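Subject: complex prediction, re-run

Hi both,

The earlier run crashed halfway through, so I resubmitted it with identical inputs.
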Amino acid sequence: MSNFSIEEQLKEATVQAVKDLFGAEASTEQIIVNDTRKEFEGDLTVVVFPFVKFARRSPQQTGDAIGAYLEEKFDFITGFNTIKGFLNLSIAYSHWLQIFNAICKEENYGQHPSTGKKVVLEYCGPNTNKPLHLGHIRNMLLGYATANILSAAGDEVHKVNIYNDRGTAICKSMLGWQKYADGATPESTGMKGDHFVGKWYVRYATEFGKEYKAWQETAEGQKVFEDWKQDEKAVKKTLKEIEAAKKKAKKEGKEIKAEDYTLQNYFFKKVYEQTYMNTYSKLGAETSEMLRKWEANDPEVRKLWKMNNDWVYEGLQETFDKLGVDFEKDYMESDNYLQGKKVVLKGLEEGLFYQKEDGSVWVDLEDMKLDQKLLLRKDGTSVYITQDLAVAENRYADYQMDDSIYVVGDAQAYHFQVLKGVLQKMGKPYADGIHHLGYGMVFLPSGKMKSREGDTVDADDLIAQMVEMARELTEEQGKVETLSKEEMEELYRILGLGALKYFILRIGAKKSFVFNPKDSIDFQGDTGTYIQYNYARSQAILRKYNSDDYKQAFSFDNGIEDLEKELIMLQYKYPSVILEAATNYDPSIVTVYAYNLAKTFSKFWSAHSILGNSDEKVTAFRVALTANNARIIKSALNLLGIEVPNRM
RNA sequence: GGCUCCAUAGCUCAACUGGAUAGAGCGUCUGACUUCGGAUCAGAAGGUUGAGGGUUCGAGUCCUUCUGGGGUCACCA
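This time it finished cleanly. Structure:
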């Protein structure tokens, strides 16, 4: 790629100019090269302010001096002008053509040579007690696209998944099934496995709610509340919270039911639920009992557990396939949670951690501006972070990676800081390469998604809905009657998923956004569909041209059109766009690029005739431009996990 | 309260990591050749970049003080 990097050539030329003209040593890093703004003459612009002090002249004079020098010494520069300290340089169109000819010859244009860097990228991270929702979709699209982009930038990338396949939540879904399902299975009900299990998880929550509500009326429940009311400080704090919650609900335009905000109801709902679950609840006791049995390897419970999880895996795999994401390896929390304990004890032995009198193990991360963190409970069992330490270690044994990327919601930013901190303290070779790729939450118009209450956008539903919308729109417009039924179905899938993926990936990862299922996603304007449409039209041109004559090296005596040059400049940027997206772990850079490419091509399409030229060479050239553009659009969209249709 | 992320046109998002007059799409309004695909193209209107201060040739971008919002600060995962 670097052999035709025009920016580098220009930077080196400028360094030489500054040296010869002003006797000053500049480095290429100091030199800023931008695209020239459309309203000025020129292609590339050098910012001259950095050299003004060497030159001891005005920006205008400095720019003119450098410009004159460059124009004289370098053939590829054909003209210049200096405006307000910006040196605009015109690049010979023949030079752009050379670049274009070189791009056309490259097989995997955009793919960078190997960096030798190994990267493990973890994404998705489902629980085995419920199906995936919109948040997971954002996660998977980000993770999958980032992995592709890193590969294109030359890294060796391993995509892995981590299943949270044990613990209280999974016991709840198991218990829900055991108590209420009456032996039903996904097969017997025709339900997708993950939805089936999720159903019993929700059922558990409902039954627990009933039990809890009933208990609140009992003398025991009332006494708990009355006792708590004696604690003035706690009551005061809670009253404040209630006011805040009310205000918030009002702001979000939610209906306010007075009974939700009485002190008693709020106390039971928000303050006391966990305690009730652990002390009085029958269902809660059964859950803990099941968890204990699971940890003790009770055969019955393990069998139930395996059945529960296998149902979920099967269901999830279907969703992964539909979305087009994949994993090289699955890590299971259940395989790692015990090992984490050993890791911690070893660190304790080495004096990296300390033990409190009750036997719990802690790490002091205050020198990293983090807190004291618990690593092992007083009963010796592990917490969330303990198992992540083990997973990290196992992963290193598997891959010896330089970088580990965790695609996990922003809510866990603190957790990953701590994880990295602990691993650094332990002197692990992979610690510094840990990077948390966080992303903002997806909200519904009604607020946060709550899976326990079934208030979510289900991943499978959403995908189906998008495909359906693509169908309706296509039929409405009476398009592509020439396709067979299967081809049509395939097209709807490509269009629906393309719109969904583009819509989500074009938003910077850090931003939270509100997803409105009602007016959902556009198929017009800055959308995946627009770019796909662009590709389909290009294919139509190629079909019509129906020849390989465009595969040749071009040169013209009379120059080329501005839009043609603009397209070449954009196409030429593709590799550096990939690199930028990779260093920032940011797929949205690729979406923006793909859109610009499509937009510029659309302009070109309407401004010039591609096939109908008297000069066959011009036609061949424009077809070559079209083919190249289509190739890059396809490649860029594929990086994002978006497919392209040949007709639509 | 500590830490952290976010705030740009009515709405959804950009802005090449400090560069020129802040750009797109949606929505609104106006237009597009009997010729390559109108899911398109051309144009109009729409902005004190949440507020103030600072750093410098230059700030949406960096520093700082506020304001508003999200997240987090569990022997939950």
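The longest helix of chain A spans residues 193-217.

- K.
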